[in-house]
Amino acid sequence: MRLQDKSAIITGGANGIGKETALLFAQQGAKLIIADFDEANGLAVVKELRGLGAEAHFIKADVSSSHDAEQVVAAAVEHFGRVDILVNNAGITRDGFLVKLEQAQWDQVIAINLTGVFLCTQAAAKVMMAQGSGVILNAASVVAQYGNVGQTNYSATKAGVVGMTKTWAKELGPKGVRVNAVAPGFVTTNMTDKVPDKVLDVMKQQTPLRRLGQPRDIANAYLFLASDEASFINGAVLAVDGGLSF
Q1: At what angle do helices 152-172 and 116-131 cross, to 10 degrees?
Q2: What is the DSSP secondary structure assignment for residue 137, as one 8-state letter?
Q3: Domain count, the chain
Q4: CA-CA distance, 218 to 215, in Å (whole number)?
Q5: What pLDDT, on a 0 to 100 scale, did the predictor assign at position 245?
Q6: In this structure, what DSSP letter does residue 186 have?
Q7: Is 219 within a domain?
Q8: Fewest CB within 10 A of the end CB: N or C in the chain?
Q9: Residues with catalytic function
Q10: Which CATH number goes with the domain that contains 150?
Q11: How far is CA 35 from CA 49, 147, 175, in A?
């Protein structure tokens, strides 16, 4: 059990990569807080986790709210006594070409994907620093480095996440807290369900492995970085993209 008795918070844990990460962490012995705005699916995930024998709790939260972020961390401390792992997985897209992108679309993505990561990390870091240990994992993306048509807002947030990851690794490392990021390529999730097949085919052709990633591919990366096997990895951005980024 690579995460035996470790307490973990996973934001955006009700669906997709977050859900898959929660299931994998539970199988490896973690105790979990699932934080998500999607209450129905969040509660269903917790039921599934408990079916695996894991201790798990759902907290309905808007990560862009400082109050909610603090409540999520407080719940972990209340139930488990500590916070060992934070996975900042929550994220949304509101795509549009630059000249047609509305400010509301910009604001929504910035609020969840960037401000949410900041607020949740700020709350968790205080607990981890007091403990003298902890792992913070952030969801970046290949678009942070390479951009993507129609994703001005999303690309900006993911580039910001990379910058924050490296800054926090330097700030928190001396306190025993590691901070890393995972940068997925094209992954099959509920976000891609509405993408036309011809577009998905292009994504596959752009990826040297000629397939889309699966949520478990990303969850496996989170598991490695969360485990003691990665105890000397800090400030890294791990590309999990089938070779798309080189």
Answers
A1: 10
A2: E
A3: 1
A4: 5
A5: 87
A6: S
A7: yes
A8: C
A9: 154
A10: 3.40.50.720
A11: 14, 28, 26
**What DSSP assignment string belongs to 157-174?**
HHHHHHHHHHHHHHHHGG
Residue 171 is part of which domain span? Answer: 7-239
Angle (CA) 76 232 166, round 5°: 70
Q: Per DSSP, what are the bridge partners of residue 8?
A: 32, 85
Token pair of 140 as six digits: 């970046």
Number of residues written out for the chain? 246
Residue 244 within any structural domain of the chain: no
Q: Is 222 marked within a binding site?
A: no
- The Cα–Cα gap between 221 and 140 comes to 12
Nearest Cα residue to 184 out of 140, 220, 225, 154 = 140
Does residue 194 lie within any of the structural domains?
A: yes
- pTM across the whole model: 0.96
| Structure tokens, 136 | 């913070």
The answer to whether 156 is annotated as binding is yes
Check residue 194 and give its pLDDT: 72
- The answer as to whether 28 is a domain residue is yes
Annotated binding residue 189: no
Residue 89 marked as a ligand binder: yes
Q: List pLDDT tens digits, range 186-240.
A: 999 877 777 788 888 888 999 999 999 999 999 999 999 999 999 999 999 999 9
Q: Which amino acid is at 84?
A: D
